[in-house]
Amino acid sequence: MSLPRVNAVVIGAGAGGGVVAKELSEAGLRVALLERGRWYTANDCRKDDLRNQRTSVLGNNSGPDDERNPRVFVDRDANRHVVLPSEGGYSNNAACVGGGTLTYGAMAWRYQPKDFRMRSTYGALEGSTLDDWPISYDDLAPYYEKAEYEIGVSGDVRNDPFKGPRARPLPMPPLSPTREYEILKPAARRLGLHPFDLPMLRNSVPYNGRPPCMRCRWCVGFVCEVDAKCGTHNTVIPRALATGLCDLRLGCMVKEILTTEQGKITGVSYFDAHNHLQEQPADLVIISGAAIESARLLLNSKSKLFPNGLGNRFDWVGRNLQGHAYSGATGLFDFDTYDDVGPGANIAICDYNHGNPGLRGGAMLANEFIRLPFQAVDMPPHGVRWGKAHKDFMRKAYRRTIKIMGPTQEMPVFDSRVQLDPTVRDFWGMPVAQLSGYQHPHTLEIAAVMAAKAEAWLKEAGATQTWRSVPGNGISGGQHQAGTCRMGSDPKTSVVDPWCRVHDTDNLYVIDGSVHVTNGGFNPVLTILANAYRTSAHLAQSWKGKV
Amino acid sequence: MSKRSALTRRRFLQVAATAAASSALVSCGRHAGPWRFFTPNEARTIEALCEQIIPADQDPGATWAGTIYYIDSQLVGHFRKLQSAYRRGTAAFDAACHSAHGQPFAALAFDQQTDFLNQLPSSLQPFFDMVITHTMQGFYGDARHNGNRDAVSWRMLGIPVIPIRGRDHYEFPRKG
Question: Is ipTM strictly over 0.85?
Answer without folding.
Answer: yes
